[in-house]
Amino acid sequence: MDNKDSEAEIHPLKPEDAKAQENHENSVERRIIIKQSPRLSRLSRWRTAAFFISLFLCLIIVFAFSFVIPCPERPVSERTWFRNYDSAGAYQFLAIEDVNEDKVQDVIFAFKAGNGSGSFNRSCLDEGLPSPCAFLAAVSGTNGRVLWERPAAEDVEWLQCGIQQLGGAGAQACLVVGKPTSLTAVSLQTGEVQWRQSSDFGANYTVLAPVSVIPDVDSDGVQDLIIFIATGAKIKTFIHSGKTGKQIGSPGSLDVDGQARYVRLDLASSSSSYFLFYTENSLYAYSLKDLYSAATGMEMKLPGLEQDPQWEKNIDHATHRFSLLSSADIRYLTKIPGPSQENLLVVSSEMATLLSTRSLQSVWSLNVSHVVREPLLGYFKPDVLGIVLESEISPNRKKVMIVESGSGAVQWDLKLNWRAESPGPATLSTADHRSAFLIWGEYQAPGNETRSRAPLQKLYLFHPSYTNVLLELRNSTEQVIAFDAALFERSRHACYVLLRGPQAGEEPGLVSLMKRKLKEDVSESRVIWLNQVAVDSEQYVRDRLYRMRFQSRA
């Protein structure tokens, strides 16, 4: 065998032999191809059939979803709706939350009556309460339909909605602080009572609002509540479980020198929380760690229970007085968001001062006297935060100012007649990164300021794109108990809500809750030129502001 191979290598094939061998190989390959071609043809036909079958199935599915299976109907929000209650009184409370999770905001409010509406036919006796009692109700923002109603307490001292993890880790609820003393957690989605607890707050107490949520201190997986109760010259501190409502530890006691209010500051620089209590004469500061230790007698290291060294240097630990300002005549403390931290606006009887919470130094000061209500935030310039201040300049006369938060410069101001019981302003964010401002009062042109009657309650809209224009939206002759404005659907459907009628402590009467789409009033509004110089036609101004788009800010 080896000799033959060697001979083949030494004597290669002759051309004729090579050609014959090549023809033989080609003939073999053709026979193999002929044998394989039927198989390949059948495979190709199967692939073609599978492609057309898949295409046919896809067309059937598209046809079914497009024409056969109906798409879920989007709820159509009514432009205006009313909800009326006879023989009732209203509490000064409105909350706007998505109760039924349809991506449209709903309205939660409280009224006092013997029975609820006919939708649920609930009475005070159903909850073992004397009649009349306080009802908490949620109505659909889409059409005003009652979503749920709940007799909540004999009377209401304080209401707060949208509290996370109240009653459970995934729960969202409203907290009702009732009279006589009771705490009730009501589910935001269903109106069912999550828990109810009685508590001994003492006689003639006042709840310092709002109720604050603190980290989970009883290790049940749900954040807890801290409630401050003012009784005379003392403030009592109560910590309650967010899951069950039970009191944790014993009440703490804080000494103050008068009727106090408070604001909570969460310092980003040190992950610590401080509670500032202010009276007409003094300012007091307590860390959350101090309050927790006083209530439970224990030390615990939790997020938010640290102390800030810079703040601790300015606190007298014997009295807890805070040496923040030379003037102690404080009317309001308001948190102002900043690029990296919250700052603090201190409003006294004659001055407004912005303080840095990091350095505790003044950023700017502005002369402003007799501010009549809590400052409000909005945007006069694109993405530049402004502060709305309302100050009394004479009896039944006020001045509205928009102040730039970074510099303290006055960007816009307006003088109006007003009633002390008139609602406060509201703001809505617009797509040009500014705000629409809704203001209550009565405008009188310069030179026509004689007043022989009580001022009317008129609602005005102002947008910075027209600094010399007010739109008069509506004229309300009824008593307005509560007012708010919001986007009822994300980036669209801007509305305002009015709660009108007698208050809960007055003689019962007709209580009316109304939602009104803002653009409906804009199209019918009266244009007021503030400087008597008309730049555009009134209809052009209405049309342009009617086309104004709104957006939700994060």
Count of DSSP H/I helices:
6
- Please provide the count of β strands: 31
Mean of all residue-level pLDDT scores: 86
Radius of gyration: 35 Å
Task: Give a brief description.
Helices cover 17% and strands 43% of the residues.
Description:
The protein starts with a helix and ends in an 8-residue tail after the last helix. The longest helix is centred in the N-terminal third of the chain and has 54 residues, at 15-68. It has 554 residues and is of the alpha+beta class. The protein is built from six helices and 31 strands.
Element layout with pairings:
Elements lengths: L1 H9 L4 H54 L11 E18 L8 E8 L19 E7 L6 E8 L1 E10 L7 E8 L2 E6 L5 E6 L7 E9 L9 E8 L2 E7 L6 E9 L5 E7 L4 E7 L4 E5 H9 L12 H5 L16 E8 L4 E7 L2 E5 L6 E6 L8 E6 L2 E11 L2 E8 L5 E8 L8 E4 L5 E7 L15 E6 L6 E8 L3 E10 L2 E9 L8 E9 H6 L2 E4 L8 H9 L8
Antiparallel strand pairs: 1-2, 1-30, 2-3, 3-4, 5-6, 6-7, 7-8, 9-10, 10-11, 11-12, 13-14, 14-15, 16-17, 17-18, 18-19, 20-21, 21-22, 22-23, 24-25, 25-26, 26-27, 27-31, 28-29, 29-30
